[in-house]
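Work Package 3 (structural annotation) set out to generate three-dimensional models for the target panel prioritized at the project kickoff. During this period the team completed the workflow that converts sequence records into discrete structure tokens, so that structures can be stored uniformly alongside our sequence database. As a representative example, we reproduce one entry of 215 residues exactly as it appears in the project archive.
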Amino acid sequence: MSKQATSTVRKATLADLPSIVTLHKIAFRGFFLTILGGTFLRELYRGFIVETDGVCWVAESELRDEKVETVGFVAGTRCPNRFFRELLFKRGFRFALAALPGVAGHPLKVLPRVLSALWYRGDKPSAAPDGALLSSLGVNPSAGRRGIGKTLVNAFCEEAAALGAPAVYLTTDRDDNEAVNAFYRQLGFRIVATAIRRGRTMNTYLCTVASKAHS
């Protein structure tokens, strides 16, 4: 990538799905959702793009040869409980079919988590009963250290605020992931809960965003 590339962010469209899935696989290599495969990921991010409560942005870099490359994305939902409930109702069968290859390849590891995912509603913290969930953030390592992740998170927070959310929250893996935790702290997020999940220590972060609404 050219060092003189410039980056912009915009709302994601369905045309961005292939790039978002590719970036997810890069950012979350070996993670549970990645194991479920590209078809499952396309269904999930389609929901973040087209559903009323979904929020999804992409970052693009314009290179010197005038080509444009998608180098990052952020996705989540203004109302996690309603979003995941409606997504399961509308596209549950498609999700089940999409998850089959991952279940077949790793049945003991994947099947119990697929079943628990059917009831996933965002793990909303008590400190943010009306908060928006920032579900995924991914930036291509080749575009790192250019502030793209920060710009994407700010865009997400501003849209969430404009939609009426007073805060944004997310959960990260604290173990061996201090750079990610430091990143969110620098953006004004604070730890509001810590829990052990499947042997890993998870931090839930919260940021008040009402003041970031578009004027």
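The chain has a mean pLDDT of 83.
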